[in-house]
Amino acid sequence: MTTVDTGDQRSDSEDVWEVPERWRTAAEPFRGVNNPKPIDLGSTGVHEILRSYRPQLEHSLAATRAEGFEHCADEALAYLAAPDTYASTLGAAAVWTLICVDFVTCHCANNYAHSVHVAKFIRDHVVASWVVAHGPAFAAEAALRCADLDVRHEMVWTLGRQIYPLAPARTGRREMRYFQSLAGQIRRVLATCSDADYATAVQRLSALRAADPDAAIHLGASYLLPGQQDWLDADLARADLPDRYTVRHVAPSLTTAAQLARFLEVGTIQYWHEGPRYSVLTQVGPPAADLIIDEFRSAPAKPAASLRKLAALLAHFPTDAAFRALVDRGELPAVAPALTTATSNYPRRAMRLLSADAADHESPETAERFRLHACAHPHLIASHADPRALPLLRRADSAGT
């Protein structure tokens, strides 16, 4: 628990930030911060997967060799022949990348359908095979080495087969999609592995960062190992950061208000999924509430599902700004339950802010909330209620007699 500065010069137990356990569960894995469930390392289907994709893989790798990228083709073919013993991170990365683009072998209708298929039926087997055969550090480096590869995106058909030659990635323009397609699972592995395996991964990715100055590679390493906060600080300070879309993937590694402020300058929170959102909220804490407040204030009243969800998040932040945001839209049915929760969570803050709002604005809803809260907590009126709002209580008493 952390005491935060609420700006009202009155610190009490209501200023203590307590992370809801559900938020930790929803956040992305972070070693020592939450307790993620380990992935299933008993998956044994990778050999059958490689067998089914092998004809297409061999044709694409032959085309890769023909275009001059012989080293990659050789490493990939050697890994394909002995995935349990041939420890080539480049070979593993090349095979994974080609599987990601080959939607013909599995009869998927298009690339999008294939990405869903890969995530649901293939990814976990591949990650498990990398970890079991070669260790978590190998898996982390292999994932990052996917960014060393460019894929020709126009299909070339030879003898009825789909061919995707690989080429070395261009400096400063790394393609991170194939890394990102399995990075979440590898981050989970690194969050739950042994201390010895974790130390090896830190050492190996540190060496990779030193050897490759590309900003995208560095950001990928900081995503996989969020505990290396010095890496993240150095990455965010760079002047040569890639596009905002690439930078956004490091959001689950943020832990401080300063990092968040810099991230908002160079990254984007558009299209956030649940994991990154809850990671930022749990790890940065109340300074991240402004993100939710801004989203909440701009959310339409209908449909109400999004507004209700955002309001429920705000109800757990021990700050005046979060409470005021709920009060401002408290008349909406989607917001009222969260405002009730916040009032119960922070009765002193509620007395102070509800009474001030009732005095400043002619809002029947707020005035009634203030009166009900005063009835429930009469001992807080003298110390926390705005004196200007006390006539509202007296008028209510007169009306009731």
Short description:
This protein has 401 residues and is mostly helical.
**SSE pattern:** EEHHHHHHHEEEEHHHHHHHHHHHHHHH
Report strand order across the widest sheet: 1-2
Helix content: 55-70%
Counting structural domains, the number is: 2
Shape assignment:
elongated
Mean pLDDT: 91
Count of distinct strands: 6
State Rg.
27 Å
Instruction: Tell me the strand percentage band.
Output: under 5%
Structural class: mainly alpha
Low-confidence stretches: 1-11
Q: How is the biggest beta sheet arranged?
A: 2 strands, antiparallel
What does this structure look like?
This protein has 22 helices and six strands. By secondary structure, the protein is mainly alpha-helical. The N terminus is likely disordered. It is elongated, with a radius of gyration of 27 Å. A two-stranded antiparallel sheet has the order 1-2. It has a two-stranded antiparallel sheet with strand order 3-6.
